[in-house]
Every structure is written in C-alpha cells, then in structure tokens.
Amino acid sequence: MTLSLDTSWATSSEIAQAVGTGQTTATAVVDRALNVIAARNSTLNAFTTVTADRARAKARAVDAATDKTKLPLAGVPFAVKNLFDIEGVTTVAGSKINRAHAPAEQDQPLIARREEAGAVLVGALNMGEYAYDFTGENIHDGPSRNPHDITRMTGGSSGGSGGAVAGGMVPLALGSDTNGSIRVPSSLCGIFGLKPTYGRLTRARSFPFVASLDHLGPFARSVPDLAVAYDVMQGPDPEDPVCDQRETDFVTPQLKLGLEGLRIAVAGGYFRQGAFPEAVEALGRVAKALGATKDVDIPEAARARAAAYVITCTEGAALHLERLRKQAGDFDPAVRDRLLAAAMVPSTLVVQAQKFRRWYRAQMLELFKSVDVILAPATPCTAPKLGQQTFVLDGVELPVRANMGLYTQPISFIGLPVVAVPVPLTPLPIAVQVIAAPWREDVALRVAFALEQMGVCAAPRPAL
Predict the structure, then answer these.
(1) In the chain, is it the N or the C terminus that has fewer CB atoms within a 10 Å radius of its CB?
(2) Which residues are catalytic?
(3) Domain for residue 339, yes or no?
C-alpha cells in the first residue's frame, strides 16, 4: 500500500515519516521526483545531470533497510550544485574546461552523510561558471530560470539549487557560498538557505573558488527541513584543513526554544543605503515581528566588501592561472576578464585586505557581545530580468552581476553563520539575512523558525 503524497511540495519530514512507516516507499518517492524533474527542467534549467539509475538503486536500498524510522531523511530526494564530486560524474563546476576531466571517483562527504541518513541523490545542478557569479546565468548550460517568473534570474552562483528547490523538483539541495551564492538565490527564489560558519561543514572533494572564503550549505522550503539537512552533515573531516574539530551541535531539537532572552538588532548605516523598497519592506516586516527596535552599525562594512573583492579575485585568479594561460577562450568572457584583471593586483593590496579582515572580525566579535542576532537585507532587490545588465541604486547605475552581493559580502568575509529567510512579497519574494555569532547556527535557525511559525517568512509556491 502506498500513500498519495505530492512529493513536489511535501516537506522532508513528511516524506521520511511516510517512508519510515511504510505508507509509501522510497522508490515511489524517487520515481515521482524524477518524473517532476523530467517535466519541469526543460523550463527551469536547474539540472545539468540527472542520476536516475543511481537514485533508483539507492531508493531500493532504503526500502530494504530494517528500521527506516531511524533514517531522518528516509527516501528524501536531493540534488547538489555541480561543483560537488559525485562518483561517476565529471565535476564541471559550471565550466566548459572541466568537461574534459575524468569522472569523480568518490562522493563529496556531505553527499555521503546525507545518504547515510536515507536521502537519495537525484542529480547535479546548474551554476555560474567556477562560482564567480551572482546571476545564475551560465553561457555553457544556459541560465537557470526563476520558478516565480521564468523571465527572471535565480541568482547565483547556486542558481540551479535555488530553482530546483523553489520549483518543487527536490525538497533539499546543496550549494556553495563564497560571497553570497547561497543567500542570493534563496532571496531571489524565495526559499530558506543556510550559510554555516566558515569551517563548520567539510568542503573536501568540491571544486574550490576562494579557499579562504568558501562555504557549503543547504537550501530548503522550511526551517525544520533546513535544520535536519544541516544536522546530518555536521562532523569533522581531516580532508578539509579548515573543517573545525568541535563536537557536532545538533540544532533541530533547539528550534522550538523560542526567542526568549535573545537580543536581536537591525543592521543600520551601510545596510540601509541603496536598498529597493521591497528590501526595506521585507526587513521592516521581519524586524517588527521580532520586536527588534535596536539599530547597530556594522563598522566599515563598505570597506569589508571591498576587501572581500580583493581576496576573491586574487585567490580566484591564482587558482585558475594555468587555465587562463592555456584555455582563456574557453571561459565565460565575463569570468575570464575579471580573473585576468585580478592577476595584476599588487600583492600589497592583498596583504592590506587580509590585515583589515582580522581587524574587522575582531570588531564584529565585540559587537556580538551585546547582541545575539543581526538582521540585514539579503539582496538589494527582487529578481532582475534575465540578461539585465544594470540597476540603479541611490541614483547610480551599477552592474547587476557584481552588486547582487552588496549585503552578503561583508558577512561571509569573516565567515559568520547566516540563515536567509524568504518574505513572500507580491509579485516576487525577497529574503532577509538572520546573522549570528560564529558557531551559533542554532540561534539563527531558532529565529528563522519563529518567523516561519509567525507566518512572516515562508517559501511561496510558484504557479508552475
């Protein structure tokens, strides 16, 4: 007997409970997901690879498990940005050049940890080339399309991840965030995203962009889904030299602790400048719901963003220098030209940026002695049109590709944990960042859960 379960929009917990109690099977759930992907991907262009045979084999293994109730993600389909190694699949990282590489020999550890919890990988997702992108537009695979309006961007570089979850193709996805590549797609696609503390989740066997800034993290359509997906991935990994060895901090049981005792403030100054009305409205709704009346100024946020740019472009250029020398014509020109320019940045500027980074981190840690959570916009606006080159902020015309991370870069620059919470405005959603002190993902997720319970934040269902 199987339960009629619309897995396009079911939560992970609903799927896992139905599979665990025998109301349906992992095989039925995965077959349904593969059918939905086949029907919607030609429109949304979220997937670049569908691992159907592997998924069906894994689903059968879940169905054969003796006690499926012990698997918190039993039968739950998920997909990963195509910079994660998947055994037997070439890790393209959104590029043309990597397609000549041999297939990966082993799964990225976060994939393995999810599958140990009963989840089922169904494929790899579209992304900006080498993760140097905020739009979700890939010249090799085509743009990811926003499920709320297919003429608009998903955001990047984890654009396929945002589109796949928002579009009901999978309930969970994984992406990466260097300067905002989880939070920007979460905002434009109207879903929840978690950028953990730098070093919290292992990045081993994923294609890097900027080693000193790269994070990996989950997307979901609800906070409990986000929390359980995060929990099953925690743990040390000697393969990633920055992966912290502290004990696993399970956050799912803490979601219902509420807001009592939490000191919540709103970022002022830099984070109020240039935002479109929709970003201001979303931040206002969240702040009002939480009773956050205190404003805090994050010191030198504009300089932090500038320093993040220096570190990003120079580390990225160093990583790709040999490819730039030998295969420059195979790059997206927009990516290539920024990397080539970065290769000429004087080392003295990089040293200054790193010195400033240490100072800035110390200032932020001092700030977190008086507050537990800081609220800030996630993006300056809702999803721009595909192909849109510029928008106007404070009367100044600025490039879209470079400036969708206006409010995210000063935060990831020092590795703070952030939950992007979607506010379902009409006609398009937009997110707010819930920022916590290092290693306090639990606090950020508690606040996000409270906002979801209040009905202020939710992942709106698109009309597909």
Answers:
(1) N
(2) 81, 157, 181
(3) no
